[in-house]
Amino acid sequence: MNRKDFLQKTALLASGILLSNTSLHAIIRGKKINIGIIGCGDRGKGMMEIIDQMPEQFKILGICDILDFRLKEALPYATSATLKTKDYRHILDNRSIDAVLIATPLNMHFQIAKDALLSGKHVYLEKTMTYNISEAIQLIDLTKQYPGLILEVGHQYRYTPLYFKVKEMIANNYLGKVTQIDCRWDRNSNWRRPLPDPSLERQINWRMYKEYSGGLVAELLSHQMDFINWAFDTHPDEILGTGGIDYYKDGRETYDNVQVMLRYKKEGMIGNFGATCGNGHDGFLFKIKGTRGMVSLLVNEGYFYPEKSILQEYSTVDGVTGATKITINKDGGIPIQVENSKDGSWYALQDFYNCIVNKRTPVSNVYTGARTAYCVHLANNAIYNNGIEKWRPELV
């Protein structure tokens, strides 16, 4: 990096200017999208709360859930004119509904998304995109038949200002040559939802059963895996994994303690991704380590840790240029400054709206969603088989 480029980049970092493409988050005024919500559990209601903050973009015209009490919980986001149903096909048959948001158990994603596209609806599909890679391939093929319909996958880190900025920091060589990625998403809880009726165990706690769920990898670690795919435009070549039901001996099938290692051969990187239900100290942890520095991320907060030699370089240059003084915390980290950000899902939904109105492909689309779904699929195969899985590039 020459001196001129270095001075410019240092000034940007110090002053906290947002590096991301601001047009990504621009609000396009115009047609209001009538949307139906399929799945009114925790995630579905959370997305309805965000949609409620976007009255110029969306109107909730239908809600659907197979459980009566879930439908009742969603009523604050409905009106007397809102369609309320236990059968998602009633949502798809309603010609006034332009798009659907699918927030169901993972094993239902593909069939509902397929039916929605066949019925002419735009689709916002929560992560992970599909339960297995075969379904992901079928969904890719189906979207090719309906090029006028938008399918966006809910990997919202691709839209969050903090993560968008980190992607640009990587591209602009702030971190140097990245070799190690350390990710955790831990909790000290059994991950269970309360049951109004014991007979609803598998329907409510579906995340714990292999028939419905990809477990901790699909529900949590897929976010971080997807960000690495996006930030480096890559995918892993080999995946090693292990795990077990190591604490909660309560009849669950998906593991409560997992660890996978992803090898990115072309980039010369190793990614360590782990999650446990047995300790909550680290919580969410995401570190990207390079020869010039490291980025340490929380969901909405991040710090850049230059290597010692680079920190000396920053300090010297900053003094010469007279740029805003770089703030360094007690651990030696420089806060990554971004605009006052909303929840990442707000930006993702805004992009979904913009893509429908402007007829363009989402940043998180069927192809990127398939790539991450494949990562999850291979990671779970490695975990449950205690082995090594290899990427087949002809699949995605």
TrEMBL record:
PANTHER family: BCDNA.GH03377, NADH-DEPENDENT DEHYDROGENASE-RELATED
SUPFAM superfamilies: Glyceraldehyde-3-phosphate dehydrogenase-like, C-terminal domain, NAD(P)-binding Rossmann-fold domains
Record-linked InterPro entries: Gfo/Idh/MocA-like_OxRdtase_N (IPR000683), Gfo/Idh/MocA_oxidrdct_glycsds (IPR050463), GFO_IDH_MocA-like_dom (IPR055170), NAD(P)-bd_dom_sf (IPR036291)
A Pfam family assignment: GFO_IDH_MocA
Top-level lineage group: Bacteria
Species of the source: Flavobacterium gawalongense
Name under which the protein is recorded: Gfo/Idh/MocA family oxidoreductase
GFO/IDH/MocA-like oxidoreductase domain segment(s): 165-295
Domain Gfo/Idh/MocA-like oxidoreductase N-terminal: 33-147
